[in-house]
Predict the structure of 1-(5-phosphoribosyl)-5-amino-4-imidazole-carboxylate carboxylase.
Amino acid sequence: MNEISTILQQYKEGGLSLQEAETALKHEAAQHETGRIMDLGFAQIDLERKERCGFPEVVYCAGKTVGQSVRILSALMNKYTNVIGTRASREVYEKLAPDFPAVQYDDLSRMVYQFTDKTPINGDRIIAVITAGTSDIPIAEEAALTAEIMGNKVQRIYDVGVAGLHRLLAHCEEIRKANVNIVVAGMEGALASVVGGLVDKPVIAVPTSIGYGANFHGLSALLAMLNSCASGVSVVNIDNGFGAGRMAGIINGMR
């Protein structure tokens, strides 16, 4: 299916508004790669991201229409083996699936992705993804899948929060073997400090918006992690599993 047919089909199915379809059609004839940028009219795709940063541009789908997300991801999936769209709806996946048999969707993390090259880039060096509770798993899966698709070996250690410290201590050997630990926690966010006090490797803390009212949608966990007394703990933004997975992968790839 060529690009014009794709645009018309998306408009017919409601994925693009009339104005978006008109804009896309106007730019289709002039679509080009100038300075390694693909001009879609509503988006300028950076085609040098992989060469500069080691992985193609990742698409943040929240706030985009289904049609916009599909067109950007289609362009990337035609060019690269491994592609990620974060905070995507299942509808984006369903629109991509007929043209991209390898595309997958993960309901927990809300990630749509193409993962056809599974060659490990960073050998046997492990990234451990650890959660305080089961409710933190969606953010943890965003981190874990991101790291895996970017060529890392990932170990998941879930539901080992400080309310039952023996659960964490049972996994001490695995945690200490990891080259990088991602710790995902809401509520008071204490788990990152505890893990930071057990290992001699980097800890990336991910505060989540899980918790009751005084959690302030993750702000209390964020501040607790920023104020950690354990050295070697860095912190990403609230619910930013993707950012943690990406940073862990960069650290894991360093020699």
The first strand starts at residue 33 and ends at 34. The chain has two domains: 3-115, 126-252.
